[in-house]
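Q: Structure tokens for this one, please.
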Amino acid sequence: MSEVIFSVFPNENFVDLGLYQFGWEQCDPSHSFGPAARNHYLFHYCLSGTGTLYAQNGRKESDAFQIKSGQGFMIFPHQVCTYIADYELPWEYVWLEFDGLRVKEAIELSGLTPEQPVYKARYKDIAAAMKDEMLYIVNHKEESSFHLIGHLYLFMDSLVRSSTSTHISKGNNLRDFYLKEAFSFIEQNFQNDISVEDIAAFCGLNRSYFGKIFHETMGKTPQEFLISYRMTKAAELLKLTGLSIGDIGNAVGYPNQLHFSRAFKNVYGISPRQWRYENGGGRNT
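A: Here is the predicted structure, written as tokens:
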């Protein structure tokens, strides 16, 4: 029988970099998973043994990749994959499933793509630090959410710095400045009736150019980011307070409760009332 450690991360309120589930497994010979797709990024690191990844490429066909000890593989959101442990030397691996507004940028820096998903370490010492961070998260699930997210940031840093395909980002200082200005404006005004034009004007940019650099860096449009940010704040209020649904909608910039409920369901898949019930939030509705 395979030996497995599996945990689900309980906190969804981390916007830039969030954790969903994580674990470790010593697989049986020929143990397989899939074909399946994930909603988020899923990274496996092979601790010992070997196995094969079948990953769907841009042509909707599957490429085969042999993965051995010291290597890893990234499964991208909505990418259909199957992975199978070797019959004679089945792999042992550790995994993290994560996502966030800055993840797309970090993964691009690592050089990993749906067509080239195999991680090979350029710097063994940094790769060892990355492995240690993954194992730390798996073995310390009882620690606070902030504590585990801190180690997730260290994992991401090690993943990027140890990759064989690391790209150096140049000339983005001004772009980063504009994005920080945009984030600051959203954080301070998300509860108000603000538009993408308002955010762009605060940054001193025209709407078209602002939208372009925002989407290229974040992988989301400014409007999508604003909605995601508001719904994350709404989920936090649903869980931690007894405010009514209408009051929470108003607190995150939706004076119309019906519009708020519709936006929340588009993000979380269920109504605010149902989300509060399933996540043990306040009782006043």
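A few notes: The chain has a mean pLDDT of 88. The radius of gyration is 21 Å.
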